[in-house]
Write a structure and sequence with these properties.
This is Beta-lactamase. GO terms for molecular function: hydrolase activity; RNA endonuclease activity. It catalyses: 3',5'-cyclic UMP + H2O = UMP + H(+); 3',5'-cyclic CMP + H2O = CMP + H(+). Counteracts the endogenous Pycsar antiviral defense system. Phosphodiesterase that enables metal-dependent hydrolysis of host cyclic nucleotide Pycsar defense signals such as cCMP and cUMP. This protein is of the alpha/beta class. The chain has three domains: about 160 residues, Serine Threonine Protein Phosphatase 5, Tetratricopeptide repeat, CATH 1.25.40; about 260 residues, 4-Layer Sandwich (Metallo-beta-lactamase, Chain A); about 200 residues, Rossmann fold. The radius of gyration is 30 Å and the shape is globular. The N and C termini lie far apart (about 85 Å).
Length: about 850
């Protein structure tokens, strides 16, 4: 037995018998030889020091133990206790979080996430809380256990979302807990508190088992709960009102909200409350739903337009709540001159593609036997790449009957079948913006090449057909109405900026007094490369056809754009700082350009990017088109156009095209493999390459093949992943503990996942809440929802309520709007619009 072993035994013997001073002497001696001790002994020393309040010593010993493979369950817990007792720096937590295997201890991760957030590392803490919450919810679904941890996670996310000014996401996480079956509940006081803060208290105190729950709640939180019970029963207790008037709340937020409650319960007192006082209260609580409701109710009686302006600004924060929908709708409905009784008989909308799923968008608009086609997109993972036009033929409409094809934007799921369509009808008039036409040239040409290389499609068009297609496209300007003749009548067509990507348009059509707006894909919020949707005020819309990509399932599309970008940059920076390499698979059009500008903005104070940023695949040529239009001052967001072009919009300052350095053409002296070994493998590099879904043989899939089995690499997906795509399979496998260690196909080669895999939604699509607001403000008679997954709903676990209560889909929210018919569109279905002077409106559908 060595001397150290003897000292260890003596220290344990003395500690077990309560001779702590003597044991401490032994442990202090051992501390000098920490590098020679095993993980078990180091953990024992760390625990002893923790009990003696020697927190820094405890933390250091626990750290060494973990480095030598100590159990994170035991030693990690001691480490966190020592950190908390010692009130030490955040860096210690960051170190622990980065240790291998921490993902298996979500209780540790929740603690770290909370401390990081409140310690000033908001983005890092928030991202960790979201990732851990998803992991915990998945575990609960699989095993119907760990509900205490599930509640801990939901309440933490509720708090963080609220503090970040995102009440909709906060309510979603709260509702997952609020409706749990009683035997699964815990932390009743905190649930009650957040129900009050987020105005979900009515649902909480209306539970059938409220009297049992009430016993676990106390103090001022219980008082507010009881106040709502009185209000629900139609009672107004004099004692309750006197208490509200005279007794300040201890909690800072509840005290801020006390005036709101007084305005709610004391009608006599409310009558004396000035509009200015309510305005000041709203300024104190800008994200509070109840305060907004009371303030705008009072404001409406004085200045209706001002009340509408408040709701226009605030509605998107509360679009998930029926009270907000009813209040804003009542204001909009009362507008003079907006009421109309359109006669819509003779209108038909037929979805040939792009209905209940993304891909192959093509929509036939028929008004009084005159027909226009909207978009002609391609399918990515179906037998036929083009839309099925048989339903159009079944209606007696042939290609020759079409007055025109109107194109919204250049993504392939909207333009990929245009050459096919023109092959059937070569003289068909086609319209698109100038930027869309320029981008179509790149995307359609590349589609022909990649299809030929991969032998994906037998009847794909060729380069000659692409050239003919481009010659057929007539460029149109935004906000300039043009005429398309139709058998003695005229379509009046106006393109409006849709946001989304360069040149994207929403298309407004009028014929014989009937108006249709097709949004195409759109974004309300400005992006770096393009501004958001721009529609004129008081636009008359009878039939609205809107995308609904993020309308059905909870996603971080509701998250503030700035938060998403910060999380993305922080993740990339972590890998770069560790001398790693980053691959960002991205859609060549739109997403890739946003990513480049996000990264350049993040390091704008540097002379150059602190890493090499390479563009590859179709991304490069599309970036050049964006840069050309920036120099022309057209289509690109003016905010990012450089004052001088000494520093171009995209290229330069460390951003370069990988294709300028290598070539895979036969006879090339410097091929991709050599480029990768020389420039990417050494680290401190980032690649943005198409495709965003890692389609085999694409540029991004070549990089992924080489990077996915390296621990020093990050693959960061940046947008939508089709369920059948290689990118989706990689992401799912990386998130599944049960499948870890296996292999999967990457670019046709079997690989094991060792790289870090992350997914972000740097979305160019409108959110669920923004769609609701747009529909309410346009006030159509009919709204068709397309480009979404109508059949999908959030599935709660262990709750008394259905998914549409916890996370109402776009359909459920829109159906709360009185007088609006909501139609989730299905491919191959034709909808005949019928109306009778505005008194009655419906659709008949034909499959």
């Amino acid at each position: 037995m060595t001397i150290l072993s003897e000292v260890v035994e003596k220290a344990i013997y003395l500690e077990n018998r309560g001779y702590f001073d003597q044991a401490g002497d032994c442990f202090n001696y051992l501390q000098q030889f920490a590098d020679e001790l095993d993980a078990t002994v180091l953990t024992r020393i760390a625990q002893f020091y923790l009990n003696c309040d020697r927190n820094i010593d405890s933390l250091q010993m626990a750290k060494k133990a973990i480095e030598k493979g100590a159990s994170l369950a035991i030693t990690g817990k001691a480490y966190l206790k020592a950190w908390e007792k010692g009130n030490l720096s955040i860096e210690w937590l960051e170190w622990l979080q980065n240790q291998p295997g921490m993902e298996n201890f979500p209780e540790h991760q929740l603690y770290i996430a909370e401390k990081l957030f409140h310690g000033g590392r908001h983005d890092l803490g928030y991202r960790l809380a979201i990732q851990t919450g998803e992991q915990i919810e998945k575990r609960v679904r699989e095993h119907l256990g760990d509900f205490d941890l599930f509640i801990d996670s939901n309440l933490l996310l509720t708090e963080l979302e609220f503090l970040l000014g995102n009440p909709i996401q906060a309510r979603f996480h709260l509702r997952k807990t609020l409706y749990l079956e009683r035997e699964r509940l815990c932390r009743h006081q905190e649930i009650s508190y957040w129900s009050i803060v987020l105005d979900e208290i009515t649902s909480w105190v209306s539970r059938e088992d409220w009297h049992e729950l009430e016993e676990r709640i106390n103090g001022e939180v219980l008082m507010v709960c009881q106040m709502y019970r009185h209000l629900l029963s139609g009672k107004r207790s004099k004692r309750m009102m006197e208490t509200l008037h005279s007794t300040p709340f201890i909690d800072e937020y509840l005290e801020k909200k006390r005036l709101t409650y007084l305005a709610l319960v004391d009608r006599d007192w409310t009558g004396q409350l000035s509009l200015t006082a309510l305005e000041e209260q709203h300024a104190r609580l800008p994200d509070d739903l109840l305060t907004t409701l009371l303030y705008t109710q009072r404001l409406e009686s004085v200045d209706r337009e001002a009340a509408k302006s408040v709701w226009k600004r605030e509605f998107v924060k509360h679009a998930d709540h029926p009270l907000a929908i009813r209040a804003y709708h009542a204001l909009l409905r009362s507008e003079e001159g907006k009421s109309r009784d359109p006669i819509l008989d003779g209108c038909r909308v037929t979805f040939l593609g792009g209905g209940e799923k993304i891909g192959g968008t093509s929509i036939l608009i028929s008004i009084h036997d005159r027909h226009i086609l909207l978009d002609a997109g391609m399918h990515l993972h179906e037998e036929s790449y083009h839309p099925d036009y048989q339903p159009m033929f079944d209606l007696g409409v042939q290609y020759e009957d079409l007055d025109a094809l109107l194109i919204t934007h250049a993504h392939l799921d909207h333009v990929g079948a245009v050459p096919y369509l023109l092959a059937q009808r070569p003289d068909l008039p086609v319209y698109a913006t100038e930027a869309t036409k320029s981008l179509m040239k790149v995307l359609l040409t590349d589609t022909v090449k990649s299809s030929r290389q991969q032998e994906l499609v037998n009847d794909m068009y060729d380069e000659e057909q692409v050239k003919k297609t481009l010659l057929s496209v007539q460029a149109v300007d935004f906000a300039k109405t043009f005429i398309i003749p139709s058998s003695g009548k005229e379509w009046r067509i106006t393109y409006y900026p849709a946001g989304h990507i360069l040149g994207a348009a929403s298309i407004y059509m009028e014929l014989e007094g009937i108006s249709v707006l097709f949004t195409g894909d759109y974004s309300i919020e400005d992006q770096r490369t393009v501004k958001g949707m721009e529609l004129p005020d008081n636009l008359k819309v009878d039939i609205l056809i809107t995308e609904s990509t993020y309308g059905y399932l909870p996603t971080n599309a509701s998250m503030k754009r700035s938060v998403q970008e910060n999380m993305f940059v922080a993740t990339v920076d972590e890998m770069i700082q560790s001398n790693g390499s980053v691959l960002i698979p991205a859609f060549a059009l739109g997403r890739a350009q946003e990513i480049v500008l996000i990264l350049k903005e993040a390091y704008k104070n540097e002379d150059f990017l602190p890493f090499s940023l390479f563009l590859d695949g179709r991304v490069t040529e599309v970036c050049r088109i964006y840069q050309d239009y920036a120099e022309l001052g057209k289509f690109v967001n003016p905010a990012v156009i450089p004052e001088t072009f000494e520093k171009p919009l995209i290229f330069g300052d460390g951003v370069q095209a990988a294709q300028d350095l290598y070539s895979n053409r036969k006879g090339s002296s410097y091929i991709f493999d050599s480029f990768f070994e020389d420039f990417i493998a050494p680290g401190k590099t980032c690649v943005v390459a198409s495709s965003g879904m890692l389609i085999p043989q694409s540029a991004s899939s070549r990089y992924a093949e080489k990077m996915i089995d390296s621990k020093n690499c990050l693959i960061a997906f940046s947008g939508y992943l089709d369920e059948e795509s290689a990118g989706s399979h990689i992401l799912k496998k990386s998130q599944s503990q049960s499948l870890s260690g296996g292999k999967l196909q990457v670019n046709g080669v079997e690989k094991e996942i060792r790289a870090r895999i992350e997914a972000f939604r740097l979305s160019a699509h409108v959110s669920r809440e923004e769609i609701v607001q747009l529909v309410m403000e346009l006030r159509p008679s009919f709204v068709f929802l397309m480009h979404g997954e109508h059949q999908k709903r959030y599935k709660p676990v262990g709750t008394k309520a259905r998914g549409e209560v916890i996370y109402p889909s776009l359909v459920e929210l829109l159906r709360q709007i009185e007088g609006l018919e909501v139609i989730p569109a299905w491919n191959g279905t034709s909808y005949e619009v019928q109306s009778q002077g505005g008194e009655h409106a419906n659709t008949q559908q034909y499959a």
